[in-house]
Design goal:
about 200 residues, five-stranded mixed sheet, 9 helices, globular, RloB, RloB-like protein
């Protein structure tokens, strides 16, 4: 009689697709959450448009056989850039993402609004993505670049940022406004809350 080989249990996995792939702010931020108990992978590809990003992600999921994972969460993290055409395309991809169990995580104008929320809970309205980047240079220093790993500098202020993002979300809901169309907003706390639950 053959020996029964016990299947090795794999750690929970989070797959993240972000604009610019491993050159993005999201990559340099979220890689810090990987632990011995949680795997974090980033889909390949450097696309920045919604369609290209989603295609990169689906290809990655197929190549890496993500569907075989027992405990996996997939995030499609994308900036609205306050661009109506871009926002409309993101909305159109919602059904396809749902089909593949992909959660869309938007920020407006950009992901970096999440960084700024670590430092203040007002004056968060920006007219465009460039204005957000200029503000980051004021906060972090003139040498600010998207490829900088700011996790350690922001970690102690994360609770404040979470509260700020939550307050903005509640205000948008109270006003019965469209969340994805709102400026500012970010869904990044959804990812962090999920990570925290997995690490409990």
């Amino acid at each position: 009689m053959g020996r029964i080989v016990k299947k090795k249990e794999r750690k929970p996995l989070i797959v993240i697709c972000s604009e610019g792939g491993k050159k993005s702010s999201e990559y340099y931020y979220f890689r810090n959450f990987a632990t011995r108990d949680l795997r974090i992978q980033f889909s390949t590809g450097n696309s920045t448009d919604p369609e290209g990003m989603l295609q990169d992600l689906l290809k990655y999921m197929d190549n890496e056989d993500i569907k075989s994972e027992d405990d996996c969460k997939i995030y499609f993290i994308i900036d609205t850039d306050l661009d109506n055409n871009r926002i409309q395309r993101i909305k159109e991809y919602a059904a396809k993402c749902q089909k593949y169990n992909i959660e869309i995580i938007t920020s407006a104008p950009t992901f970096e609004i999440w960084y700024i929320m670590h430092f203040r809970n007002n004056n968060l309205y920006f007219n465009n993505s460039s204005a957000v980047k200029r503000e980051m240079s004021k906060i972090i220093g003139k040498d600010y670049q998207e490829s900088m790993d700011l996790f350690k500098a922001l970690e102690s202020k994360m609770s404040f940022a979470m509260e700020t993002a939550k307050a903005i979300k509640e205000r948008i809901i109270r006003r019965n406004e469209s969340y994805i169309d709102s400026n500012p907003h970010t869904c990044i706390p959804n990812v962090i809350e999920y990570i925290n639950r997995k690490l409990q």
